[in-house]
Every structure is written in C-alpha cells, then in structure tokens.
Write a structure and sequence with these properties.
The complex is a heterodimer of chains A (250) and B (312). With 250 residues, chain A is an alpha/beta fold. Helices cover 27% and strands 30% of the residues of chain A. A nine-stranded mixed β-sheet of chain A has the order 9-8-7-10-6-1-4-5-11, with helices on both faces. In chain A, strands 2-3 form a two-stranded antiparallel sheet. In chain A, helix 2 (68-78) crosses helix 5 (188-194) and helix 3 packs across helix 4 (127-135). Chain B has 312 residues and is of the alpha/beta class. Classes of the chains: A alpha/beta (250), B alpha/beta (312). Strand 13 of chain A pairs parallel with strand 16 of chain B.
C-alpha cells in the first residue's frame, strides 16, 4: 500500500505572530517557518506503518511557494520515500488544496492519505474532510490511535466527550490529533540521504485544478487586548475579590 | 432564502452549542430551519422546534444516522442544502467533522469558527491561535459555516413554535465507515463548553490523583474541570478536558488556571473568559499577563486553603 501524506509549511508554533500595519495579513517576512506540527505527526504515523510492514511507499505532498521544498526535504529526512511539490505563489484555500490532492491521488492511487487535523496558521481544519468527500472515501478525523488491517483500518478518534472507534474501508483518509504519536527527530545521515530522494515539482495548471480563492480576506486585525490585572497576596484576598469586586462567585 | 442549522445531539438531547449556532444564524436574516438527523431522535426535534426563532425542523431518522457519521450526514446535508442560502453547524468536533465534507460536495469553500456576523456574506474568525482576527467574505452561492459557540449568546431554548417535518429517508450509505464503539467520559459536573466556572490544571498538578484538589473546588463552585495539553498528554486526565487552540474553546464567567504556564495555544482556548485567575509558583509565568487576579504560590498549599475559604 502507498501512503500519501500532506504537509504544510507554516509559521513555527513558537512564534507569536503580529498583524501587519496595513491590516492585510500577518507578518511573515523573516519569521521562522516549520512543518505544521500536525503534519509532523502525520509523517511519523506513515513512517511507523511502513516500519511495521503495513505500507510499501510514503509520498509526501506540499503545496505552496518554492520554500515548501524545504518542508518536503524534512519529510524525506523523517522517512518519506519521495515528494511532490505543487508549486504556486497564489493563495491556496482548503478547497483548492483538496482538489489538488484529488488530482495527485488519482495518479498515485494511495491506500491511505494522512493529513493534519488543522494547519495552525489558518486554523481551518478542513482539507482532510474535503478531500475525503471529493474522493467518496471514509474519514477518521482527530486520530488518537490507528490500526491498519488488510482491507480496512480501525481508528480511535478524539471527540468532544471522549473517544470514538470507527472501522473504515480502505482507501481512507486520516487526520492526526496531537496524541497519535510523538514525532522523531531527523538524524544527520537521514537528512543527507533525503537530499538525494526524488522531489517532483508540478503546477496547479498541470493538475487541471482551478485554485481561485472563493473567500476574500477583507482585513486582519489584532484581537482585543487583555491586560494583566493585579496580584493578590493570599487566598482570602482572592476569594474576597472574586466575591465583592468581580462578583463572579457568591 | 432560508437558513439551515445542523443540530448537534446524541439522539436524546440537543447539545447547547446548537442554540449558539442559532443565534449566529438569526443575524443572517431568513427563516431558520434546523436539521435533526439521527435515530430515535424525535424528542430532539421537538426540543429544537421550541428554540427561539426556529420556523421548521427537518427530522431525518434512520438507523444509519444513529452515530451521525460524516459520510452519511454529509450526503444528506449536501442533498438538501440547495434550498438554503447558508448551512451552519457548531464548531465542535461534530460540526468540524461534517461541514467541510458538505462544502466539498457543494463545491463551496467553508468558513470555520466564525465569532461574528458582519453581513450575510461577511464574517469574523480567529486565525493563528487567535493572535489575529480575519474578516472574510464568501463569494460562494451557499455559505457553509461553523460557529464558535463562545462568540454568540445562545437563543432561548423555549418560546419558539417551529413545525417538525419528517424527511423521507430512503436508504443511508455509510460510505465505508462503521461505528465500533465510544468511550465517553462520565461526569456529574457541567460540560466544559457550557460551564459558568472552570478550574483547569496543568503540568504543575504532577499527577491525575492530584486533580482531586481541583475537583473539591469545582464541587463548591459548580464548576467544570479542564486541563492544559501537557496535563492531558501526561495522562493526568482524558483528552476531553483539553482547553486550547486544538482543544475546547471556552469563555466562562470565571476561569481559574492552576499550574498552567500560559502558552499561546492554551490562551487561545480561554482568553475570552470574563474573569481569569492564575495560580502559579513562577511569578514570570505568561499566564499572569492576562490574569485579572494572580496568586504566586505553591498550588499544593493554596488549593486546600481555597477549598476551606469557599466553605466559609
Ligand atoms: C500544535 C500545538 C497545539 C497545541 N494545542 C494546545 C492546546 O490546545 N491546549 C494547551 O493547553 N496546549 C496546547 N499546546 C501545548 C502548549 O504549547 C504548551 O506546551 C502547554 O499548554 C503547556 O502546558 P502547561 O502550562 O500545563 O505546562 P508547562 O508549560 O510545563 O507549565 C507548568 C506550569 O506549572 C507551574 N507549576 C509547577 N509546579 C507548581 C506548583 N507546585 N504550584 C504552582 N505552580 C506550579 C510552573 O511554574 C509552570 O508555569 C499545543 C502545542 C502545539 C505544538
Ligand atoms: N498547502 C498545503 N500543502 C500540503 N498540505 C496541506 C496544505 N494545506 C493544508 N494541508 C493539509 O491539510 C491539513 C489541514 O489543513 P487545514 O484544513 O488548512 O487546517 C494540514 O495539516 C495538511 O496536512
């Protein structure tokens, strides 16, 4: 079985982003970029499935500007066998990403596609489900544990209220939650080896996908600020403030 | 044109977030319809019909809808969506699992997690863990939207006079997904997203056993208990407790963060709380930058004191 893993390049999760002065977006110049944390988990899960003999080949896919190649090299260093970069400087919204993935899946015929449950820049949480719908495949979002059998897989999902177990027919789509695994670090020899792995570049046109945005961003603003209040000296003082000043407890 | 709200429920009860979603829908202008899809869920449809402003409830009952798989529900919703200007669902795990699927089937780019309605096609939503708020405008004919419950005050659960109309359900295609089981956390306490008061513990709690210190206080305040990701990852408490960018988004009257440092991903889930209290032994902890009341102290010393003080 082939596994397709979608990896997005995003602003590193440790960076506190700032809104641009002209309110057109957030500042991304000279900001540290990294693989979306959920995508790291997706790559790790694919690699573990391959190590367990459940998968034959792992193909990492990323869409966006030239710099995505760096993120794909990371995926290759972590254990992906080859990579596909759909290169464009245009804004890509989840519907476009899902359609580009459909086009790649049609050519590659993967048995399993693993994505992050959300990209921590746009916080959309959509691509996996949209891609699954376009393919007519079942989906296991927010995966907490995965077991792949012959023609099907069992996924435990993190849901509001606890955990849910589903059995999905393959091919299927999985989106990763935080506790699915703990991603490894790429070793130096693997980083070197990754440089020699195949990285194909394609354009959205070649894939026959219209990527025109459907949603316009009119402005981006900083959220309403919240400032520090006061320090209290004791539990008695805290309770007094909560009762008599904030009036949130009786 | 009318607006369709997808009800979240467990076949027995309507989830409160549906009422917040209705509040967002009411700002759009148009008749409000609610879809209740499930099995043996007539009572949910009756409850939805009572919600303020609801004109009609579509009831789709079938065994195949019992577990509300996104594959089956996605096809159902996409099939009826053409009669609507907007399709909305709560931005819960349920809604987030379902609506993108509906969007793709309709060739629509969905809008996740709206916190404000500016116009029928224009919405505000947080991005980058709430460090920025985007105003976005949809060009699609049908708007497919998930609604962040904390952004909208719930409509009244009663007072409405909607009619319930059963949809003819021919057959349900589960789309290759079958339900095996669920392990739901049972608690006597209020649900996190509906609680008026929340007390959350972080890595500083050191173990799951120590959460009884928080529970003792929660019992006195009628509070829900939450946690940081670090506490969940360490296995102190179930995943369902996680508050944050990738967990639950809450905005109670009072949020008490205990042994939580205040990473942006945690703040993303609770910084809209009305009053925030932080208890942390490190006076430099970032949580103090957003707390209304900060107590620099060892939690193991002050939690029992707090429980005792609340008894006075
Ligand atoms: C993609 C991604 C998504 C994430 N999503 C979330 C999310 O949704 N929610 C979330 O919470 N995190 C999330 N995180 C993790 C987040 O970055 C932090 O790692 C996490 O919030 C830290 O949890 P914590 O504050 O409990 O632990 P720590 O940062 O370790 O803080 C523990 C605190 O406890 C204090 N303490 C220790 N002992 C005591 C004591 N005896 N008395 C008083 N204080 C004490 C310490 O001073 C410290 O400030 C995410 C991270 C990533 C990468
Ligand atoms: N530009 C992209 N390139 C590759 N994968 C992507 C891209 N955008 C989104 N994805 C995948 O879809 C997941 C969810 O993204 P989103 O729906 O944008 O929150 C991510 O974790 C990735 O796995």
């Amino acid at each position: 079985m082939k596994i397709l893993v979608a990896v997005k390049r995003v602003v590193d999760y440790n960076v506190k982003v700032r809104v641009k002065a002209d309110n057109s977006g957030v500042e991304t110049a000279n900001v540290k970029m990294a693989m979306n944390p959920f995508c790291e988990i997706a790559v790790e899960e694919a690699v573990r499935l391959k190590e367990a003999g459940k998968a034959r080949e792992i193909i990492a896919v990323s869409m966006g500007p030239a710099s995505c190649a760096e993120t794909l090299r990371t995926a290759l260093a972590l254990g992906a066998d080859r990579a596909i970069h759909v290169e464009t400087d245009a804004e890509l919204q989840p519907l476009a990403v899902a359609k580009l993935l459909r086009s790649i899946a049609a050519a590659e015929q993967p048995g399993l596609v693993i994505l992050g449950k959300q990209a921590i820049d746009g916080d959309n949480g959509q691509v996996g489900q949209m891609f699954a719908a376009l393919m007519g495949w079942p989906q296991g979002t927010n995966a907490y544990k995965l077991e792949v059998g012959g023609e099907e897989l069992t996924v435990i999902r993190e849901i509001d209220g606890g955990l849910e177990t589903l059995r999905l027919r393959l091919p299927a789509v999985i989106t990763t939650d935080l506790r699915l695994n703990e991603p490894r670090f790429a070793s130096l020899p693997n980083i070197m080896k990754a440089k020699k792995k195949e990285l194909a570049v394609k354009k959205p046109d070649e894939l026959g996908v219209d990527i025109a945005p459907r949603v316009a961003t009119l402005k981006v603003e900083a959220p309403a600020g919240r400032s520090a209040g006061i320090k209290v000296g004791s539990v008695a003082e805290l309770v007094d403030k909560l009762k008599n000043e904030a009036k949130v407890i009786q | 044109m009318a607006i369709l709200v997808i009800a979240e429920h467990n076949n027995a009860r309507l989830a409160p977030a549906t009422l917040n979603t209705l509040a967002a829908a009411a700002k759009l202008g148009g008749d409000l319809h609610v879809l209740v899809a499930g099995s043996g869920c007539r009572a949910v449809a009756d409850a939805a019909a009572q919600a303020s402003g609801v004109a009609k409830v579509l009831l789709a009952e079938a065994a195949g809808f019992e577990h509300q798989g996104a594959e089956a529900l996605g096809s159902l919703v996409a099939g009826i969506a053409k009669d609507y200007s907007h399709v909305l669902a709560p931005a819960s795990v349920f809604g987030k699992n379902l609506l993108p699927r509906v969007g793709a089937l309709l060739d629509v780019q969905p809008i996740s997690d709206i916190i404000a309605v500016e116009a029928a096609d224009t919405f505000k939503r947080p991005i980058y863990a709430g460090n920025a708020i985007a105003t976005v405008q949809s060009k699609d004919a049908i708007k497919v939207i998930t609604v962040r419950a904390t952004g909208f005050d719930a409509v009244a659960a009663t007072g409405g006079a909607g009619v319930v109309e059963a949809l003819p359900v021919v057959s349900v295609d589960l789309g290759g997904s079958s339900f095996v089981g669920a392990e739901l956390v049972k608690s006597e306490r209020p649900e996190l997203t509906a609680a008026r008061v929340i007390i959350s513990g972080g890595r500083g709690m050191q173990s799951g056993d120590n959460f009884h210190l928080l529970e003792a206080i929660a019992d006195k305040l009628g509070a829900a208990v939450g946690a940081s990701r670090a506490a969940v990852d360490a296995g102190f408490v179930p995943n369902d407790y996680q508050v944050g960018q990738t967990g639950k988004i809450v905005a109670p009257e009072l949020y008490i963060a205990v042994g939580i440092s205040g990473a942006i991903q945690h703040l993303a889930g609770m910084k809209d709380s009305k009053v925030i209290v932080a208890i942390n032994k490190d006076e430099e902890a970032p949580i103090f930058q957003i707390a209304d009341y900060g107590l620099v102290a060892d939690l193991f010393k002050v939690l029992p004191e707090l429980a005792a003080e609340l008894d006075k």
